[in-house]
Amino acid sequence: MRKLFVLTTVLAQITIWGTTAASAQAHPSPRQHQVAEGSFIVTHWTSEPYQTTPDGATLSRFSCTDTIQGDVRGDGSAEAQMFNRLDGGTSYAGMILITGQLAGRSGSFIVQTVGTSVGTASSSTWTVVPGSGTGELRDLRGDGVEIGSETEGWRAHYRLDYYFQ
């Protein structure tokens, strides 16, 4: 009986999410979950090391700007701290200011990002910082992921699960 209840609950959630995504409105009602997908390309990148560990790895600060396409359209500006490992991989954490449009609404919001890179591939998690939205995006909340590759010319793909509070 418990398995049937869990399966029914999961199917109900899938049905609700599917219906929500299929019937997206120009301005979703509060707490109506939506999915935004697209890509962005890094248009400018700078990195400055500021400390070296005893084994030779470095800590650095980086800044970049992005052009964002897809369900989120606009520009991104990121600042982050990065640990550059000896094996060439990195771990980083920072903030991205995104200015543009989402779901027919204009404004800006900040995403907290935490990620890693290995070789030419990178991935990170996104969290919309509560209270960071401006304009028509002031009540935005959400979480997402980003997957990128240097082999695509510094292009990354994102998925943001969001709602308006």
Cα separation of the termini: 35 Å
Report the principal-axis shape.
elongated
Helix coverage percent: 10-25%
Strand content: over 45%
Provide the structure class. Answer: mainly beta
CATH class: Mainly Beta
In the residues, how many domains can be counted? 1
Key descriptive features of the protein:
165 residues, mainly beta, eight-stranded antiparallel β-barrel, disordered N terminus
Secondary structure elements and pairings:
Blueprint: H1 2-22, E1 34-52, E2 58-70, E3 72-84, E4 90-102, E5 105-118, E6 121-128, E7 140-149, E8 155-164
Antiparallel strand pairs: 1-2, 1-8, 2-3, 3-4, 4-5, 5-6, 6-7, 7-8
How would you describe the overall organization of this protein?
This protein is mainly beta. The longest helix has 21 residues, at 2-22. It has an eight-stranded antiparallel barrel with strand order 1-2-3-4-5-6-7-8. It has one helix at 2-22, and strands at 34-52, 58-70, 72-84, 90-102, 105-118, 121-128, 140-149, 155-164. Residues 1-25 have low confidence and may be disordered. The protein has a single domain, classed as Beta Barrel (AOC barrel-like), CATH 2.40.350.
